[in-house]
Structure formats: C-alpha cells, structure tokens
Automatic annotation (TrEMBL):
Protein's organism: Nocardioides exalbidus
GO BP term, pick one: DNA-templated transcription initiation
SUPFAM superfamilies the UniProt entry points to: Sigma2 domain of RNA polymerase sigma factors, Sigma3 and sigma4 domains of RNA polymerase sigma factors
Molecular-function GO terms, alphabetical: DNA binding; sigma factor activity
Signal peptide limits: none
Listed transmembrane segments: none
Family from the record: Belongs to the sigma-70 factor family. ECF subfamily.
Keywords: Sigma factor, Transcription, Transcription regulation
Domain RNA polymerase sigma-70 region: 38-103
Record protein name field: RNA polymerase sigma-70 factor, ECF subfamily
Length: 204
C-alpha cells in the first residue's frame, strides 16, 4: 500500500530516529519522517486490522488507509505520553470498530487451534513448515481456521488476543489501545483463551 500525503518538505535523515521522534517530526510537517514511520509500523497495523476484519480483507485495507490518514492529521496533537505504535493501534481499532459488520457464526476445526490455546501463537504461526509439504498445508489451514475462530469471539476478546499473542503488546499497552484497564484486558484475554480451549474439547 502506498499512502500519499500533503505536507512540508522532507527533513534531515530519519533512519536512526526513534518512532516517537519520527512522530514528533511528522507532526511538524516532515514528510520523510512520516514515510519512515509508515514503513516501520504499517505492517503491524494491517495485520491487526486483517485479524479484526478477517472476512473482508478489502475493508481491512480501507480501514488501515483511513486510520493512517487520521494519524497524519492528528500527529500535531501527539504528545508522546505513550508509544506512537500504541497510539496508532488505538486509531486503527476505533476505525475498524466503527466499520465492522455482523458476521454469521462459523464452524471451527479446533484441532488445528490446539497450539494457540497453549499461548504459543507466535511460534506456531511463524512455523511455515518449510521442506515439509504436509506441515506447510497444516500451517495454511491454521491461518484460515484462526481467522474463523477469531471472527466468532466478541470484539474486545478478539482485540486483546491479537494484540497480546500476535503483536506482543503489554497489558498496559492493550488497555491504552482499547481505552480500558489492564485488569479488564487480563479478564478478556482469559475468556478468549478459555473459549478456544472449550471449542477444542468439542472437536476432539
């Protein structure tokens, strides 16, 4: 995805700047800083939106595009009291929530999801089964089934699970994104994991 913005002239080199420093510079109209920030953080925001809107990848891309435009417009107000990544995910989450659609419940083959319920999502999902065709097929089925399973979870549970298991955010950062408390995040994450575990038992 290429995001076109209007703003001031490019500033000094940006490669060594922190994300928050880039955000401050972008807020002053530095397009090069914004483009560097976009290159660094866009993949995560798209991944998050894609999991939250799993049945409509086109909508997920639209949501992320819209969220980044909102971010560009709001950067002059960014105070740096949180990580800019957390701030961006908050914008994506709110934009996706505004545009979500009701979904029909879908059956899930929970045997595929068993590693996820053990809290081993990142390891499991990054194992692409290279050199083993059968395992590669299993990984592809895992991704597809994960999307179906997540689409059945309530919105907040789904967001907590994705941000914790796939984006490796802390409870505090997730709470900031979802405008809630770490205690609520822990509870929602526990419910999400428990739901997956229950479904696994039903499909054994």
């Amino acid at each position: 995805m290429v995001l076109t913005i209007d703003g001031g002239p490019p500033g000094p080199p940006v490669g060594d700047a922190s994300d928050n420093a880039l955000a401050r510079r972008a807020g002053l109209g530095d397009r090069a800083a914004f483009e560097e920030l976009f290159d660094r953080l866009f993949p995560g925001t798209l991944r998050f939106a894609s999991h939250m809107l799993a049945d409509d990848p086109v909508l997920a891309e639209d949501v992320v595009q819209d969220a980044w435009v909102k971010a560009w417009q709001a950067l002059p107000e960014f105070r740096g009291t949180s990580k800019v990544q957390t701030w961006l995910f908050t914008i994506v989450q709110r934009t996706a929530l505004d545009r979500r659609r009701l979904r029909r419940p879908l059956a899930v083959d929970n045997e595929i999801l068993e590693p996820l319920a053990r809290g081993d999502a990142r390891t499991t999902l990054t194992d692409r089964g290279e050199g083993d065709p059968e395992r590669a097929v299993l990984r592809r089925e895992l991704w597809e089934t994960l999307q179906l399973a997540l689409s059945e979870l309530p919105w907040t549970q789904r967001a907590c699970w994705v941000l914790r298991e796939l984006e490796d955010m802390s409870y505090g950062e997730i709470a900031h994104v979802l405008d809630t408390t770490p205690t609520v995040v822990r509870g929602q994450l526990h419910r999400a994991r428990r739901t997956l575990a229950i479904r696994m038992e039903q499909w054994r």
